[in-house]
Each structure stands twice: as C-alpha cells, then as structure tokens.
Amino acid sequence: MARKLYHGPITDVSFDGEVCQHAGECVRGMPEVFDVHKRPWANPEAADTPELADKLRAVVGRCPSGALEIVEHA
Ligand code: SF4
Predict the structure, then answer these.
(1) CATH number of 4-72
(2) Average pLDDT, stretch 2-30?
(3) 64 CB under 6 A from ligand 1?
C-alpha cells in the first residue's frame, strides 16, 4: 500500500498503513485529528493554529512505528 498524504492548513501528515502497529498513540494524543471512525481517519485540517500544529508534530513524533510522518509545507 502506498503512503497516503493528508493535507492540513499548516502541516500535512502522511501515513503508511502497512507499518502501523495500532498502538493508538495518535488517537489518544490528538483525537480531533486522528479518529478511526471517521473518513478520512486522519484530518490535519483540525490542527489549524500554530499551537495545534506543534501538538500535531509532537503526537506524530510519538508514533512508534514510523507509520505517521509530518510533511511540512514547502
Ligand atoms: S501512533 Fe502510529 S503506529 Fe500507533 S496507531 Fe497511530 S499510526 Fe499506527
């Protein structure tokens, strides 16, 4: 499966479902962005302030598998 890209206003997030360990760090850390009951399940649109974008970077940084990655805007 290819890595998917989810767009946000400050930063994008990419996700590779093949390496996700389903540890749940993301959904626990930032449920307003990561919600497996929604489509798309990752919605970095919700991280629309510099503070929320920093929180998103921190939560993605705790992803133990590397499935989630921050993609900064150019
Ligand atoms: S934190 Fe990473 S490994 Fe854990 S569920 Fe989320 S994407 Fe998957």
Answers:
(1) 3.30.70.20
(2) 96
(3) yes
